[in-house]
Design goal:
This protein is α/β, with parallel strands linked by helices and 466 residues long. It has a domain of 290 residues. It is 24% helix and 36% strand. Strands 5, 6, 8, 9, 11, 12, 14, 15, 17, 18, 20, 22 and 24 form a 13-stranded mixed sheet that branches. The protein has a 10-stranded mixed sheet with strand order 4-3-7-10-13-16-19-21-23-25. Strands 1-2 form a two-stranded antiparallel sheet. Strand 3 and strand 4 form a beta hairpin. Pfam families: SUFBD_core (PF01458), SufBD_N (PF19295). InterPro entries: Fe-S_cluster_assembly_SufBD (IPR055346), SUF_FeS_clus_asmbl_SufB (IPR010231), SUF_FeS_clus_asmbl_SufBD_core (IPR000825), SUF_FeS_clus_asmbl_SufBD_sf (IPR037284), SufBD_N (IPR045595). Belongs to the iron-sulfur cluster assembly SufBD family. It comes from Berkelbacteria bacterium GW2011_GWA1_36_9.
Protein backbone atom coordinates (compact mmCIF):
# COMPACT_ATOMS: atom_id res chain seq x y z
CA UNK A 1 0.00 0.00 0.00
CA UNK A 2 1.40 3.36 -1.01
CA UNK A 3 2.54 5.74 1.70
CA UNK A 4 0.23 8.66 2.38
CA UNK A 5 2.07 11.82 1.38
CA UNK A 6 1.78 14.87 3.59
CA UNK A 7 2.23 18.31 2.08
CA UNK A 8 3.73 21.32 3.79
CA UNK A 9 1.23 23.96 2.70
CA UNK A 10 3.81 26.69 3.24
CA UNK A 11 4.70 26.40 -0.46
CA UNK A 12 1.30 27.92 -1.24
CA UNK A 13 0.50 30.03 1.82
CA UNK A 14 3.85 31.76 2.33
CA UNK A 15 3.65 35.37 1.12
CA UNK A 16 6.49 37.68 0.21
CA UNK A 17 6.66 41.13 1.70
CA UNK A 18 4.96 43.42 -0.80
CA UNK A 19 7.62 45.15 -2.87
CA UNK A 20 5.67 46.75 -5.68
CA UNK A 21 6.61 49.33 -8.25
CA UNK A 22 2.97 50.40 -8.20
CA UNK A 23 -0.24 49.33 -6.47
CA UNK A 24 -3.42 51.03 -7.62
CA UNK A 25 -5.69 52.63 -5.01
CA UNK A 26 -8.65 50.49 -4.06
CA UNK A 27 -11.69 50.65 -6.33
CA UNK A 28 -12.44 50.91 -10.03
CA UNK A 29 -12.40 54.12 -12.08
CA UNK A 30 -12.01 55.36 -15.64
CA UNK A 31 -8.72 56.95 -14.62
CA UNK A 32 -7.34 53.57 -13.56
CA UNK A 33 -8.42 51.97 -16.85
CA UNK A 34 -6.65 54.70 -18.81
CA UNK A 35 -3.54 54.29 -16.67
CA UNK A 36 -3.38 50.53 -17.23
CA UNK A 37 -3.73 51.01 -20.97
CA UNK A 38 -1.11 53.77 -21.01
CA UNK A 39 1.36 51.71 -18.94
CA UNK A 40 1.06 48.92 -21.49
CA UNK A 41 1.28 51.24 -24.50
CA UNK A 42 -1.91 49.77 -25.93
CA UNK A 43 -3.55 50.72 -29.24
CA UNK A 44 -6.64 52.89 -29.13
CA UNK A 45 -9.00 50.03 -29.99
CA UNK A 46 -7.98 48.16 -26.82
CA UNK A 47 -8.46 51.23 -24.64
CA UNK A 48 -11.91 51.72 -26.16
CA UNK A 49 -12.75 48.08 -25.47
CA UNK A 50 -11.68 48.52 -21.84
CA UNK A 51 -13.72 51.71 -21.40
CA UNK A 52 -16.83 50.19 -22.99
CA UNK A 53 -16.50 47.16 -20.69
CA UNK A 54 -16.26 49.46 -17.67
CA UNK A 55 -19.43 51.22 -18.76
CA UNK A 56 -21.25 47.89 -19.07
CA UNK A 57 -19.89 46.73 -15.72
CA UNK A 58 -21.23 49.80 -13.93
CA UNK A 59 -24.68 49.20 -15.47
CA UNK A 60 -24.90 45.49 -14.57
CA UNK A 61 -25.96 44.09 -11.17
CA UNK A 62 -24.26 41.17 -9.46
CA UNK A 63 -25.70 37.76 -10.39
CA UNK A 64 -28.55 36.71 -8.13
CA UNK A 65 -28.05 32.95 -8.53
CA UNK A 66 -25.35 30.59 -7.30
CA UNK A 67 -23.14 31.27 -4.26
CA UNK A 68 -23.61 34.35 -2.11
CA UNK A 69 -21.38 37.20 -3.32
CA UNK A 70 -22.62 39.83 -0.87
CA UNK A 71 -19.34 39.88 1.07
CA UNK A 72 -17.30 40.65 -2.05
CA UNK A 73 -16.65 44.38 -1.72
CA UNK A 74 -15.09 45.47 -5.00
CA UNK A 75 -14.49 48.96 -3.63
CA UNK A 76 -11.84 47.41 -1.34
CA UNK A 77 -9.92 45.67 -4.14
CA UNK A 78 -6.76 46.91 -5.84
CA UNK A 79 -7.23 46.01 -9.51
CA UNK A 80 -3.69 46.60 -10.76
CA UNK A 81 -0.42 45.71 -9.01
CA UNK A 82 2.96 45.94 -10.70
CA UNK A 83 5.58 43.92 -8.79
CA UNK A 84 9.26 44.76 -8.57
CA UNK A 85 9.95 43.34 -12.02
CA UNK A 86 9.85 45.80 -14.87
CA UNK A 87 10.16 43.37 -17.75
CA UNK A 88 9.02 40.01 -19.05
CA UNK A 89 12.26 38.02 -18.79
CA UNK A 90 13.41 35.26 -21.13
CA UNK A 91 16.07 34.29 -18.63
CA UNK A 92 15.15 33.02 -15.17
CA UNK A 93 18.29 34.68 -13.79
CA UNK A 94 16.83 38.12 -14.56
CA UNK A 95 13.74 37.64 -12.37
CA UNK A 96 13.94 39.49 -9.00
CA UNK A 97 15.14 37.22 -6.21
CA UNK A 98 12.02 37.35 -4.01
CA UNK A 99 9.72 36.51 -6.93
CA UNK A 100 12.09 33.83 -8.20
CA UNK A 101 12.10 32.08 -4.81
CA UNK A 102 8.29 31.96 -4.82
CA UNK A 103 8.11 30.24 -8.20
CA UNK A 104 11.02 27.94 -7.44
CA UNK A 105 9.10 26.69 -4.38
CA UNK A 106 6.21 25.97 -6.75
CA UNK A 107 8.42 24.12 -9.24
CA UNK A 108 8.83 26.80 -11.92
CA UNK A 109 11.01 26.75 -14.00
CA UNK A 110 12.21 23.29 -12.93
CA UNK A 111 9.19 21.83 -14.70
CA UNK A 112 10.16 23.66 -17.88
CA UNK A 113 13.66 22.23 -17.81
CA UNK A 114 12.39 18.72 -17.23
CA UNK A 115 9.23 18.25 -19.25
CA UNK A 116 7.80 21.35 -20.94
CA UNK A 117 8.03 22.95 -24.36
CA UNK A 118 7.70 26.37 -22.74
CA UNK A 119 6.72 28.04 -19.48
CA UNK A 120 5.38 31.35 -18.24
CA UNK A 121 5.02 32.86 -14.77
CA UNK A 122 2.77 35.73 -13.71
CA UNK A 123 3.10 37.49 -10.36
CA UNK A 124 0.18 39.75 -9.41
CA UNK A 125 -0.63 41.82 -12.54
CA UNK A 126 2.60 41.26 -14.49
CA UNK A 127 4.11 38.33 -16.35
CA UNK A 128 7.68 38.11 -15.03
CA UNK A 129 8.99 35.21 -17.09
CA UNK A 130 8.03 33.65 -20.43
CA UNK A 131 10.04 31.36 -22.66
CA UNK A 132 9.49 28.92 -25.54
CA UNK A 133 12.00 26.28 -26.51
CA UNK A 134 13.71 26.97 -29.84
CA UNK A 135 12.47 23.86 -31.64
CA UNK A 136 8.88 25.08 -31.37
CA UNK A 137 9.75 28.68 -32.14
CA UNK A 138 11.37 27.44 -35.36
CA UNK A 139 8.09 25.73 -36.33
CA UNK A 140 6.16 28.99 -36.02
CA UNK A 141 4.54 28.35 -32.64
CA UNK A 142 3.80 31.59 -30.76
CA UNK A 143 3.90 31.47 -26.95
CA UNK A 144 3.80 34.92 -25.37
CA UNK A 145 1.89 36.73 -22.69
CA UNK A 146 -1.07 38.74 -23.99
CA UNK A 147 0.56 42.10 -23.22
CA UNK A 148 3.50 41.22 -25.48
CA UNK A 149 1.23 39.62 -28.10
CA UNK A 150 -0.73 42.86 -28.36
CA UNK A 151 2.47 44.62 -29.42
CA UNK A 152 3.91 41.89 -31.66
CA UNK A 153 0.75 40.38 -33.19
CA UNK A 154 -1.88 43.16 -33.15
CA UNK A 155 -3.92 41.75 -36.07
CA UNK A 156 -4.40 38.36 -34.40
CA UNK A 157 -5.24 39.99 -31.09
CA UNK A 158 -7.75 42.38 -32.63
CA UNK A 159 -9.44 39.55 -34.53
CA UNK A 160 -9.73 37.09 -31.65
CA UNK A 161 -9.49 38.94 -28.32
CA UNK A 162 -12.94 39.03 -26.66
CA UNK A 163 -14.82 39.26 -29.94
CA UNK A 164 -16.20 35.91 -31.08
CA UNK A 165 -15.68 33.49 -28.20
CA UNK A 166 -16.28 35.57 -25.06
CA UNK A 167 -17.57 39.08 -25.86
CA UNK A 168 -17.11 41.85 -23.33
CA UNK A 169 -20.86 41.96 -22.54
CA UNK A 170 -21.09 38.26 -21.62
CA UNK A 171 -21.66 38.78 -17.86
CA UNK A 172 -20.67 41.16 -15.08
CA UNK A 173 -17.32 39.60 -14.21
CA UNK A 174 -16.30 39.36 -17.86
CA UNK A 175 -17.08 43.07 -18.10
CA UNK A 176 -14.79 43.58 -15.11
CA UNK A 177 -12.12 41.39 -16.66
CA UNK A 178 -12.25 43.22 -19.99
CA UNK A 179 -11.79 46.51 -18.12
CA UNK A 180 -8.69 45.60 -16.11
CA UNK A 181 -7.16 42.48 -17.69
CA UNK A 182 -3.38 42.19 -17.47
CA UNK A 183 -0.88 39.54 -18.52
CA UNK A 184 -1.87 35.96 -19.22
CA UNK A 185 -0.97 33.71 -22.15
CA UNK A 186 -1.22 33.92 -25.95
CA UNK A 187 -0.69 30.73 -27.97
CA UNK A 188 -0.88 30.29 -31.73
CA UNK A 189 -0.11 26.90 -33.28
CA UNK A 190 0.27 26.96 -37.10
CA UNK A 191 -1.49 24.56 -39.46
CA UNK A 192 -0.53 20.90 -39.06
CA UNK A 193 1.99 21.58 -36.28
CA UNK A 194 1.63 19.23 -33.34
CA UNK A 195 3.25 20.41 -30.10
CA UNK A 196 3.73 17.04 -28.42
CA UNK A 197 5.16 18.48 -25.17
CA UNK A 198 2.94 20.64 -22.94
CA UNK A 199 3.17 24.39 -22.55
CA UNK A 200 2.60 25.72 -19.03
CA UNK A 201 1.84 28.95 -17.20
CA UNK A 202 1.58 29.60 -13.47
CA UNK A 203 -0.36 32.51 -11.96
CA UNK A 204 0.44 33.71 -8.46
CA UNK A 205 -1.26 36.39 -6.39
CA UNK A 206 0.92 37.80 -3.60
CA UNK A 207 -0.55 41.20 -2.66
CA UNK A 208 -3.37 41.68 -0.17
CA UNK A 209 -6.85 42.74 -1.29
CA UNK A 210 -6.01 42.52 -4.96
CA UNK A 211 -7.58 41.20 -8.11
CA UNK A 212 -5.85 39.13 -10.75
CA UNK A 213 -7.26 39.22 -14.27
CA UNK A 214 -4.96 37.29 -16.59
CA UNK A 215 -6.20 36.53 -20.11
CA UNK A 216 -5.52 33.25 -21.91
CA UNK A 217 -6.04 33.12 -25.69
CA UNK A 218 -5.27 29.90 -27.57
CA UNK A 219 -5.62 29.53 -31.35
CA UNK A 220 -5.01 26.04 -32.73
CA UNK A 221 -5.02 26.32 -36.52
CA UNK A 222 -6.22 23.56 -38.88
CA UNK A 223 -4.76 20.15 -38.18
CA UNK A 224 -2.68 21.35 -35.22
CA UNK A 225 -2.46 20.02 -31.68
CA UNK A 226 -1.37 21.52 -28.36
CA UNK A 227 -1.58 20.75 -24.65
CA UNK A 228 -1.56 23.63 -22.18
CA UNK A 229 -1.37 23.48 -18.39
CA UNK A 230 -2.27 26.26 -15.95
CA UNK A 231 -1.60 26.35 -12.22
CA UNK A 232 -2.88 29.03 -9.82
CA UNK A 233 -2.32 29.80 -6.14
CA UNK A 234 -2.24 32.59 -3.56
CA UNK A 235 -1.29 33.00 0.12
CA UNK A 236 -3.89 33.20 2.88
CA UNK A 237 -4.95 36.67 4.04
CA UNK A 238 -7.91 37.90 6.06
CA UNK A 239 -9.05 40.50 3.49
CA UNK A 240 -10.86 39.15 0.42
CA UNK A 241 -9.29 38.95 -3.03
CA UNK A 242 -10.79 38.23 -6.43
CA UNK A 243 -9.62 36.22 -9.40
CA UNK A 244 -11.60 36.76 -12.60
CA UNK A 245 -9.50 35.40 -15.42
CA UNK A 246 -10.69 34.61 -18.93
CA UNK A 247 -9.79 31.70 -21.20
CA UNK A 248 -10.69 31.77 -24.90
CA UNK A 249 -9.82 28.77 -27.09
CA UNK A 250 -10.27 28.45 -30.84
CA UNK A 251 -10.05 24.89 -32.14
CA UNK A 252 -9.94 24.99 -35.93
CA UNK A 253 -10.81 22.20 -38.37
CA UNK A 254 -9.16 18.86 -37.47
CA UNK A 255 -7.30 20.49 -34.55
CA UNK A 256 -7.06 19.30 -30.94
CA UNK A 257 -6.49 21.23 -27.71
CA UNK A 258 -6.12 19.88 -24.19
CA UNK A 259 -6.45 22.50 -21.46
CA UNK A 260 -5.55 21.34 -17.94
CA UNK A 261 -5.73 23.47 -14.80
CA UNK A 262 -5.36 23.17 -11.05
CA UNK A 263 -6.80 26.18 -9.23
CA UNK A 264 -5.68 26.37 -5.62
CA UNK A 265 -6.46 29.92 -4.58
CA UNK A 266 -6.52 30.71 -0.87
CA UNK A 267 -9.82 30.60 1.00
CA UNK A 268 -10.11 34.39 1.10
CA UNK A 269 -10.31 34.43 -2.72
CA UNK A 270 -13.43 34.66 -4.88
CA UNK A 271 -12.61 32.61 -7.99
CA UNK A 272 -14.97 33.86 -10.71
CA UNK A 273 -13.28 32.53 -13.82
CA UNK A 274 -14.71 32.20 -17.35
CA UNK A 275 -13.51 29.62 -19.87
CA UNK A 276 -14.90 28.85 -23.33
CA UNK A 277 -13.91 27.13 -26.58
CA UNK A 278 -15.25 27.29 -30.13
CA UNK A 279 -14.68 23.98 -31.91
CA UNK A 280 -14.85 23.65 -35.69
CA UNK A 281 -15.26 20.58 -37.94
CA UNK A 282 -13.62 17.41 -36.56
CA UNK A 283 -12.01 19.46 -33.81
CA UNK A 284 -11.57 18.23 -30.24
CA UNK A 285 -11.42 20.22 -27.00
CA UNK A 286 -10.49 18.54 -23.72
CA UNK A 287 -10.98 20.31 -20.39
CA UNK A 288 -9.23 18.74 -17.37
CA UNK A 289 -9.90 20.73 -14.20
CA UNK A 290 -9.18 20.57 -10.49
CA UNK A 291 -10.80 23.22 -8.27
CA UNK A 292 -10.05 23.70 -4.60
CA UNK A 293 -8.70 26.27 -2.18
CA UNK A 294 -10.88 29.30 -2.91
CA UNK A 295 -13.65 30.34 -0.53
CA UNK A 296 -16.14 30.78 -3.38
CA UNK A 297 -15.80 29.42 -6.91
CA UNK A 298 -18.11 29.96 -9.88
CA UNK A 299 -16.60 28.18 -12.88
CA UNK A 300 -18.32 26.46 -15.81
CA UNK A 301 -16.00 25.75 -18.78
CA UNK A 302 -18.03 25.91 -21.99
CA UNK A 303 -17.69 24.26 -25.38
CA UNK A 304 -19.41 25.54 -28.51
CA UNK A 305 -19.45 22.63 -30.97
CA UNK A 306 -19.78 24.69 -34.12
CA UNK A 307 -18.46 22.26 -36.73
CA UNK A 308 -19.78 18.86 -37.78
CA UNK A 309 -18.20 15.90 -35.96
CA UNK A 310 -16.66 18.21 -33.34
CA UNK A 311 -16.17 16.85 -29.83
CA UNK A 312 -15.81 18.08 -26.25
CA UNK A 313 -14.59 16.19 -23.18
CA UNK A 314 -15.03 17.81 -19.75
CA UNK A 315 -13.38 16.09 -16.77
CA UNK A 316 -13.33 17.84 -13.41
CA UNK A 317 -12.88 17.44 -9.66
CA UNK A 318 -13.97 19.94 -7.02
CA UNK A 319 -13.10 19.83 -3.31
CA UNK A 320 -14.83 21.92 -0.63
CA UNK A 321 -13.82 22.03 3.03
CA UNK A 322 -14.89 24.25 5.91
CA UNK A 323 -16.10 27.66 4.74
CA UNK A 324 -15.87 26.80 1.04
CA UNK A 325 -18.52 26.87 -1.68
CA UNK A 326 -17.40 25.25 -4.94
CA UNK A 327 -20.02 25.90 -7.62
CA UNK A 328 -18.62 24.29 -10.77
CA UNK A 329 -19.80 22.45 -13.84
CA UNK A 330 -19.76 22.50 -17.63
CA UNK A 331 -21.71 23.85 -20.58
CA UNK A 332 -21.85 22.33 -24.07
CA UNK A 333 -23.72 23.73 -27.07
CA UNK A 334 -24.23 21.29 -29.95
CA UNK A 335 -24.66 23.38 -33.11
CA UNK A 336 -24.00 20.85 -35.88
CA UNK A 337 -24.54 17.22 -36.88
CA UNK A 338 -22.69 14.30 -35.30
CA UNK A 339 -21.25 16.40 -32.50
CA UNK A 340 -20.44 14.67 -29.23
CA UNK A 341 -19.75 15.63 -25.64
CA UNK A 342 -18.75 13.78 -22.52
CA UNK A 343 -18.96 15.42 -19.09
CA UNK A 344 -17.52 13.64 -16.05
CA UNK A 345 -17.66 15.58 -12.79
CA UNK A 346 -16.65 14.47 -9.31
CA UNK A 347 -16.86 16.44 -6.08
CA UNK A 348 -15.88 15.96 -2.45
CA UNK A 349 -17.29 17.93 0.47
CA UNK A 350 -16.04 17.75 4.04
CA UNK A 351 -16.34 19.63 7.32
CA UNK A 352 -19.43 21.59 6.24
CA UNK A 353 -18.17 22.49 2.75
CA UNK A 354 -20.58 22.90 -0.17
CA UNK A 355 -20.08 21.53 -3.69
CA UNK A 356 -22.50 22.03 -6.56
CA UNK A 357 -22.55 20.74 -10.11
CA UNK A 358 -24.23 23.27 -12.40
CA UNK A 359 -24.36 22.16 -16.02
CA UNK A 360 -26.01 22.79 -19.37
CA UNK A 361 -26.20 20.62 -22.47
CA UNK A 362 -28.05 22.11 -25.41
CA UNK A 363 -28.62 20.30 -28.72
CA UNK A 364 -30.15 22.45 -31.43
CA UNK A 365 -32.74 21.41 -33.99
CA UNK A 366 -31.11 19.72 -36.96
CA UNK A 367 -28.07 18.44 -35.06
CA UNK A 368 -28.77 14.83 -36.04
CA UNK A 369 -26.54 12.07 -34.75
CA UNK A 370 -25.29 14.12 -31.83
CA UNK A 371 -24.39 12.41 -28.56
CA UNK A 372 -23.95 13.61 -25.00
CA UNK A 373 -23.16 11.82 -21.76
CA UNK A 374 -23.18 13.53 -18.35
CA UNK A 375 -21.97 11.77 -15.20
CA UNK A 376 -21.89 13.57 -11.84
CA UNK A 377 -20.62 11.80 -8.71
CA UNK A 378 -20.50 13.47 -5.29
CA UNK A 379 -18.89 12.15 -2.12
CA UNK A 380 -19.73 13.64 1.30
CA UNK A 381 -17.36 12.80 4.13
CA UNK A 382 -19.67 13.81 7.00
CA UNK A 383 -23.26 14.71 7.88
CA UNK A 384 -22.80 18.49 7.86
CA UNK A 385 -21.45 18.88 4.33
CA UNK A 386 -23.63 19.70 1.31
CA UNK A 387 -23.73 18.51 -2.28
CA UNK A 388 -26.06 19.91 -4.97
CA UNK A 389 -26.70 19.05 -8.61
CA UNK A 390 -28.31 21.49 -11.05
CA UNK A 391 -28.31 19.83 -14.48
CA UNK A 392 -30.14 21.38 -17.43
CA UNK A 393 -30.53 19.50 -20.71
CA UNK A 394 -32.27 21.15 -23.66
CA UNK A 395 -32.75 18.85 -26.66
CA UNK A 396 -34.56 20.12 -29.76
CA UNK A 397 -33.62 17.25 -32.11
CA UNK A 398 -35.10 13.74 -31.93
CA UNK A 399 -32.31 11.82 -33.63
CA UNK A 400 -29.76 12.12 -30.81
CA UNK A 401 -28.40 10.07 -27.91
CA UNK A 402 -28.36 11.77 -24.49
CA UNK A 403 -27.60 10.22 -21.09
CA UNK A 404 -27.40 11.75 -17.62
CA UNK A 405 -26.38 10.04 -14.38
CA UNK A 406 -25.89 11.56 -10.94
CA UNK A 407 -24.92 9.88 -7.67
CA UNK A 408 -24.42 11.22 -4.16
CA UNK A 409 -22.88 9.04 -1.48
CA UNK A 410 -21.06 8.90 1.81
CA UNK A 411 -18.15 6.78 2.94
CA UNK A 412 -19.66 3.62 4.36
CA UNK A 413 -18.82 2.19 7.76
CA UNK A 414 -18.20 -1.17 6.09
CA UNK A 415 -15.47 0.27 3.86
CA UNK A 416 -13.75 1.95 6.79
CA UNK A 417 -14.02 -1.16 8.99
CA UNK A 418 -12.49 -3.33 6.25
CA UNK A 419 -9.52 -0.99 5.73
CA UNK A 420 -8.94 -0.51 9.46
CA UNK A 421 -8.89 -4.29 9.85
CA UNK A 422 -5.92 -4.23 7.48
CA UNK A 423 -3.91 -2.00 9.81
CA UNK A 424 -4.91 1.56 8.80
CA UNK A 425 -6.25 4.14 11.20
CA UNK A 426 -9.59 5.82 10.45
CA UNK A 427 -8.09 8.90 8.79
CA UNK A 428 -5.87 6.82 6.52
CA UNK A 429 -8.81 4.56 5.63
CA UNK A 430 -10.95 7.52 4.58
CA UNK A 431 -8.12 8.95 2.51
CA UNK A 432 -7.79 5.65 0.68
CA UNK A 433 -11.51 5.70 -0.17
CA UNK A 434 -11.26 9.27 -1.42
CA UNK A 435 -8.21 8.42 -3.53
CA UNK A 436 -10.16 5.62 -5.19
CA UNK A 437 -13.10 7.95 -5.80
CA UNK A 438 -11.02 10.58 -7.62
CA UNK A 439 -8.71 8.13 -9.43
CA UNK A 440 -10.56 8.35 -12.80
CA UNK A 441 -9.96 12.12 -12.78
CA UNK A 442 -6.41 11.99 -11.45
CA UNK A 443 -5.21 9.68 -14.21
CA UNK A 444 -6.24 12.27 -16.81
CA UNK A 445 -4.06 15.00 -15.32
CA UNK A 446 -0.42 15.61 -16.23
CA UNK A 447 1.77 13.64 -13.83
CA UNK A 448 3.07 16.51 -11.71
CA UNK A 449 -0.42 18.02 -11.34
CA UNK A 450 -1.95 14.68 -10.43
CA UNK A 451 0.56 14.34 -7.61
CA UNK A 452 -0.13 17.92 -6.50
CA UNK A 453 -3.90 17.41 -6.44
CA UNK A 454 -3.61 14.16 -4.50
CA UNK A 455 -1.39 15.81 -1.90
CA UNK A 456 -3.61 18.87 -1.63
CA UNK A 457 -6.71 16.79 -0.95
CA UNK A 458 -4.86 14.68 1.62
CA UNK A 459 -3.72 17.87 3.34
CA UNK A 460 -7.23 19.33 3.38
CA UNK A 461 -8.58 16.14 4.91
CA UNK A 462 -5.87 15.90 7.55
CA UNK A 463 -7.32 16.81 10.92
CA UNK A 464 -10.83 17.24 9.52
CA UNK A 465 -11.83 13.61 9.81
CA UNK A 466 -13.33 11.69 12.64
Amino acid sequence: MQDLIKLNRDIFDMANEENNLYKAPEGLSEGLIRQISKDKNEPEWMLNKRLRALELFNQTPLPNWGPDLSKLDLSKISFYVRPDSVKNSRSWDEVPQDIKKTFERLGIPEAEREALAGAGAQYDSNVVYHNLKKEWDDKGVIFEDCDVALQKYPKLMKEYFMNKCIPINDHKFIMLHASVWSGGTFIYVPKNVRVDIPLQAYFRMNSKKMGQFEHTLIIADEGSEVSYIEGCSSPVYNPNSIHAGCVEIYVKKNARVRYSSIENWSKNTYNLNTKRAIVEENGIIEWISGNMGSGVTMLYPSSILKGRNSKADHISIAFAGKGQNQDTGAKVFHLNVNTSSNIQSKSISIDGGTTSYRGLVKINKGCKGSRSSVECDALMIDNKSISNTYPFIDVKEKNVDVAHEATVGKISDEQIFYLMSRGLNEEQAKQIVVSGFIEPIIKQLPLEYAAELNKLIELEMEGSLG
